[in-house]
Amino acid sequence: xxxxxxxxxxxxxxxxxxxxxxxxxxxxxxxxxxxxxxxxxxxxxxxxxxxxxxxxxxxxxxxxxxxxxxxxxxxxxxxxxxxxxxxxxxxxxxxxxxxxxxxxxxxxxxxxxxxxxxxxxxxxxxxxxxxxxxx
Amino acid sequence: xxxxxxxxxxxxxxxxxxxxxxxxxxxxxxxxxxxxxxxxxxxxxxxxxxxxxxxxxxxxxxxxxxxxxxxxxxxxxxxxxxxxxxxxxxxxxxxxxxxxxxxxxxxxxxxxxxxxxxxxxxxxxxxxxxxxxxx
Amino acid sequence: xxxxxxxxxxxxxxxxxxxxxxxxxxxxxxxxxxxxxxxxxxxxxxxxxxxxxxxxxxxxxxxxxxxxxxxxxxxxxxxxxxxxxxxxxxxxxxxxxxxxxxxxxxxxxxxxxxxxxxxxxxxxxxxxxxxxxxx
Amino acid sequence: xxxxxxxxxxxxxxxxxxxxxxxxxxxxxxxxxxxxxxxxxxxxxxxxxxxxxxxxxxxxxxxxxxxxxxxxxxxxxxxxxxxxxxxxxxxxxxxxxxxxxxxxxxxxxxxxxxxxxxxxxxxxxxxxxxxxxxx
Amino acid sequence: xxxxxxxxxxxxxxxxxxxxxxxxxxxxxxxxxxxxxxxxxxxxxxxxxxxxxxxxxxxxxxxxxxxxxxxxxxxxxxxxxxxxxxxxxxxxxxxxxxxxxxxxxxxxxxxxxxxxxxxxxxxxxxxxxxxxxxx
Amino acid sequence: xxxxxxxxxxxxxxxxxxxxxxxxxxxxxxxxxxxxxxxxxxxxxxxxxxxxxxxxxxxxxxxxxxxxxxxxxxxxxxxxxxxxxxxxxxxxxxxxxxxxxxxxxxxxxxxxxxxxxxxxxxxxxxxxxxxxxxx
Lengths: 135, 135, 135, 135, 135, 135
Known about the structure:
Largest sheet of chain A: 5 strands, mixed
CATH architecture of chain A: 2-Layer Sandwich
CATH class of chain A: Alpha Beta
Oligomer: homohexamer
Largest interface: A-B, 22 and 22 residues
Strand content of chain A: 25-35%
Order of helices and strands of chain A: EHEHEHHEE
Strand order of the largest sheet of chain A: 3-1-2-4-5
CATH topology of chain A: Tetrahydropterin Synthase, Chain A
């Protein structure tokens, strides 16, 4: 079993707020991240695919293909976008890094046909990151 | 002459748009960066102070003091903020990385009293950065 | 299950020496690291918490809380300190990166109450690092 | 159980081509990587050893020893070399990052006698990497 | 005056050899870099343009345009190529990092029409880099 | 004119204290850095040599030679050492990053005979660094 990682970077903005809570509760929980104007990050995304080596190619999955899947299914939808208003797979979901990682997993899990999606790692800053390995 | 650098990181969002241009012209020039919902970055800021060593301390400027100046004058105003709506020193200015770097220079230049402000370097992404050395 | 990482950096010094061995044996084993004056590192610490997403907040654990726990329980005790003489949880223990990682685990494991401590990763240099997952 | 990592960097070149395929098939699969003149990378290699702490030394394995094993068994054979023509353990194998990681595993697995080899991580670029955990 | 930097990465191979010297002299000077099969690197290229801010756009030069110039004039010619055999602007020149940086400068200097080319920085490894600011 | 950089890393410890000041004054100025037990860093050192390309070699200075000079004259004296007690060229000097950079300059300036020493950059942490250009 090998683990193949493709790293991509995108820039987006978000606001953390739970519509079921009061304004005061939202400020208590999210502090600066509740700022109504939103704020943004350069997110670093690492997609890991697990599988065996295809003896014909020497690849688990051709990284050019994996890159294309990530670009089409994720980067084109999130880069230079606002998660709360513009990203279809995050509508109605609080855009914490945790929830975005799960959302990206759900978008990709059926698109990877050589090997299988093993984990989604999402770095919000150089100090804060999330890894999700599926349900 | 020595050059002392302090690095700080902050997260903010912005939208690039020139109000004197038409919508089509703005899209032509700024493309994805003109997205009305804005987008964001983890900006890396490097402040360089030039000066001679104070023989009493061995410092050009105490980096704890420089850090405090940057935190008070810049980071507290820009971190988790939207440059177009919330940052006083950027009102009425297109928030390109170039203009933000000049804005930060103007905020800091009179606050540095040991040595002198030499340059403001601002990295918008790992691939795009600006340096400004004043005047 | 998600894995949430918080990264912190601290600077400390240490000397590797086993008091049950002779001076010659200590030099044989630890070489430059046995230098009596000690030497130091910028240690990078990555604390990983595993857990499920709290649907109210969208967080596994609020990273502001995790940061505060790490600052209070670890960074305040080790930053700008000498592991052999000044760090309570390392007294009587050879301060290798392995043993420091285990010591940090023991200090944190009962402090994490949302999710559970999953791993302590400690980088001594850009080339040498240790990960400990308990037990 | 602790995980000890040693990181090394080497520079090498390779050409991806499967001699059992036609030229057209090779270009279809490998594209730019099939260029007959070869191309190269600064590979980053991370060797992870798993084991318990030796109470005498506080080490799982002395990183100076691990470094020496990696230098002797791997770096001396691959640094500034062409994988297709000059690296004994890669002869007759398509030098994809996957296959190189497996090759390095096979060279090292019996050389690590304190703890056991846990994984070989090989980064071909800052965006593409492979991890192999044996078997 | 502002300095705008665009960073790109490419992978290439080269062999250092001076055809006017004997084989022994070449080995004496270039050691491992004289290996006839060549070796390779992930080169990091930083192109710096100096200029004033255009008040209409807030840019010195649109980084999308600068990126396109670098891709067309440099990356398309050097990525996954062998400097000794395949790169037109390096034929007949020893492909040291110094000479490649000068070659890239010559290719770009007349292509930058907003601001002016200020420097070419080329990193061969994380430890070795060259900067050229023109003649 | 080209600028050639060689990067090296070393680990050392130091204590900031001015013997001409009282204990209280030293604590006021240096705070945590005045800790009597000392503390340490992984210092990153970047040595820049300026010069013209030697047409015979294509080098300004052979980086293997520059590396050897830095290893012999600096790294062998400072790595795994305490600046206050063990480094000959820092005796009687407060070991701030500024003063260490000047000390390193003085050790190297007459050793570089191809090209000339242009700058010494010394990073104490990822956030604090000093550059010295002589004179």
